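From the pipeline queue, job 12 of 40. The input is one protein chain; the requested action is below.

Action: predict structure.
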Amino acid sequence: MNRIYIIMLFICASLNVIAQDNYLEKYPVEILEITSANFEWNQFDKDDAECKFHKNALVLECKDKKSHAVTTTELDFDVTNVDYILIYQFDATDLDDDKPFGIIYDYKNGNNFQTLCFGKKNFQILSYETGEKNIIKEGLYKIENKKNVMVTVLKRGKRLDFYLGSQNLPLTTIRNHEMKNSNIGFYVEGKTKMKLTGIGYRLIIENEEEDKD
């Protein structure tokens, strides 16, 4: 019985992953250049951090090995009660286990936000609450193209599914996360920098095709 139960759980989990992937196929997302007028990134030039446009990219740098830096923009819809897909695009050629960087979602302010960040082989989902960093989840991963990394976030209710690359390879899932803030962005930790190149997003409307008729 235990073996049958385990097999059934595996089948259900596999079907659920397929169902989530179908949403990504059904709702294709256009990736906009980071310099698009749709976004208003906070730029700065300080002693410990810098964020500025360079050519067709936005370069975010942390200059303090014991700190972190972020840049964010606000989505043009309320994230609290809708489902949607987000795609982040960046260059990860300078990945270092001691200097991780990655994406931000559900950003309230510099002391309260969620981030998925990457080292050379490991990833972590971190939660900053009143400035205190907590590890929510961690694991291993492999990037197919470090010069053009794509991270996709699929939000369905309180569930967040994370995918890597243009092939949408499943990375991890967060359940029971209540999204509250429409600001998203990028994150660097330690003395390092990352090159941000694009963002894409769209709402999930179940009867979108029927609504068009």
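Job complete. The radius of gyration is 18 Å.
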